[in-house]
Specification:
Pfam families: CMAS
Radius of gyration: 18 Å
Order of helices and strands: HEHHHE
Strand order of the largest sheet: 1-2
Helix content: 40-55%
Number of strands: 2
Shape: elongated
Structural class: alpha+beta
Number of helices: 4
Number of domains: 1
Largest sheet: 2 strands, antiparallel
Strand content: 15-25%
């Protein structure tokens, strides 16, 4: 609602249920643990450039919202409370 308005993150189950019969998931790679360090780097860059961001006309509320997002998501990914996956979908022969 606040970070990605209108965004939707479907579950693995929802993706499976949406696939037509001729397609199947052949591989799933969990990459959430690797995403945490990326978010940490984004957080650091965001904080280091805070004044520059504000000078572009963004509000402190906007800056704080993204600061919270990067910190929260990093922690949730690091401790496996949320995950990101890559899915390989193949067509049946």
């Amino acid at each position: 609602k606040y970070i990605f308005p209108g965004g939707h993150l479907p579950s693995e189950r929802a993706i499976r249920e949406a696939l037509p019969p001729e397609l199947s998931i052949t591989k799933i790679i969990h990459i959430g643990q690797h995403y945490a360090p990326t978010l940490d780097l984004w957080y650091c860059a965001w904080m280091e450039n805070g004044e520059k961001i504000l000078k572009l006309g963004y509000s402190r509320k906007f800056h704080r919202k993204w600061q919270f997002y990067f910190a929260l998501c990093s922690t949730l990914f690091r401790y496996s409370h949320i995950d990101t996956i890559q899915i390989l979908i193949e067509k049946s022969l």
